[in-house]
Design a protein that fits this description.
Blueprint lengths: L11 E5 L2 H10 L1 E2 L7 H5 L5 E8 L7 E18 L9 E8 L4 E2 L24 E4 L1 H12 L16
Parallel strand pairs: 1-3
Antiparallel strand pairs: 1-7, 2-5, 3-4, 4-5, 4-6
Length: 161
C-alpha cells in the first residue's frame, strides 16, 4: 500500500472487538462497535479505514489474543439498525474488508505512537474505538498485508471477498 493511494480526507480508526465477532462482520461486510452504539460509527466517513483489534477470541471467556484481526474501508455514510433479537437492535455500517493476516500487537508495540514506551499500552483500547495517525495505520496495515501474493495491488476500493 502506498500513501498516495489513500485519500487525503481519509481518517484511520481502531475498533476493539472479539475475534469471533470480527469474523462475523467480515463475512457479512459490516462493522458494529461498542455493543452496537451509534457514536463510534457516526465518527467514521466513507473512505475512512478501520482496523480491528481483538483482545480475545470470544467476547467474555475467550482465550487472550491481543492481535489486529481485520482491516477494511468504510463503504458509505449509512449507519443502520440491525435487529439481532427482540431486545437487541445494534447499529452497523458497511465495510469493504481486505484479506489480511492476524498480527499480534506485541510485534508492533514499540513501533506505534500510541503504545511506544508505555507499560500500560492497553489503555486506549478500553474506549472500544479511537482514531490513529496515518503513520500508525501504515505500520499496522503493512504488517497485516505483507504476506499477500506479490501480484496483489492494494487500492482503497479493493476487496478480495
Amino acid at each position: 500500500m502506498q500513501m498516495d493511494e489513500i485519500s487525503q480526507q481519509s481518517r484511520f480508526w481502531i475498533g476493539v472487538v472479539s475475534a469471533s465477532h470480527v469474523k462475523r462482520g467480515e463475512l457479512e461486510g459490516f462493522a458494529q462497535l461498542c455493543h452496537g452504539k451509534s457514536a463510534p460509527l457516526r465518527k467514521m466517513r466513507a473512505g475512512d479505514w478501520l482496523i480491528y483489534y481483538s483482545p480475545r477470541t470470544e467476547i467474555r471467556k475467550g482465550a487472550p489474543l491481543q492481535a489486529f484481526t481485520a482491516i477494511g474501508e468504510v463503504a458509505d455514510d449509512i449507519v443502520y439498525e440491525y435487529q439481532m433479537s427482540e431486545s437487541f437492535v445494534p447499529l452497523r455500517r458497511n465495510i469493504r474488508y481486505t484479506s489480511c493476516r492476524v498480527v499480534p500487537i506485541r510485534d508492533l508495540l514499540e513501533k506505534l505512537s500510541f503504545t511506544r514506551g508505555n507499560r500500560n499500552w492497553g489503555y486506549p483500547f478500553r474506549y472500544g474505538h479511537f482514531e490513529i495517525s496515518l503513520e500508525d495505520f501504515m505500520t499496522i496495515s503493512s504488517a497485516m498485508l505483507y504476506c499477500l501474493p506479490s501480484d496483489f495491488t492494494f487500492l482503497p476500493h479493493a476487496t478480495l471477498r
